[in-house]
Amino acid sequence: MTDRRSSWLALALFAGFAVLHTWPLATAPASLSRNNNDDTILNEWTIAWVAHQAVADPAHLFDANIFYPDRRALAYSEHLIVPAAMGAPLLWAGASPVLVYNLLLLAGFTLT
């Protein structure tokens, strides 16, 4: 078996484990959410905010509207810039923040 094939098989195996670990999330990723705590909702909002503000006004990325009029409110928690950059194209294409968060969650479980 070639190295490339074994790498793809390992990736598929870990993707399967991620789906099993988060079941039934994979059955309806655009509507189901792991909103079992407030962190999930905050992370969904943060990813959507960063993706929005990165193109709308990147100089004020950290001036999030969550604690308006307080400035730099995004710095009060995780800014999630890298996950937001990964999910931004989906958000810009019209995907919901819930779907993007769930896909990033599955990707995170798969790749780690």
Summarize the structure.
With 112 residues, this protein is mostly helical. It has four helices and no strands.
How does this structure look, described?
With 112 residues, the protein is an all-alpha fold. It has one domain (3-111). It contains four helices and no strands. The protein has helices at residues 3-21, 38-56, 81-92, 97-111. The longest helix is centred in the first third of the chain and has 19 residues, at 3-21.
DSSP summary: helix tally: 4
Write down the secondary-structure element order.
Answer: HHHH
Radius of gyration: 16 Å
What is the 3D shape? elongated
The biggest beta sheet is recorded as: none
Could you give the distance between the termini?
23 Å
Overall tally of domains: 1
Number of strands: 0
Overall SS class = mainly alpha
Strand content: under 5%
Uncertain residue ranges? none
Average residue-wise pLDDT: 94
Instruction: Please give the share of residues in helix.
Output: 55-70%
Task: Name a few traits of the molecule.
single chain; 112 residues; mainly alpha; 4 helices
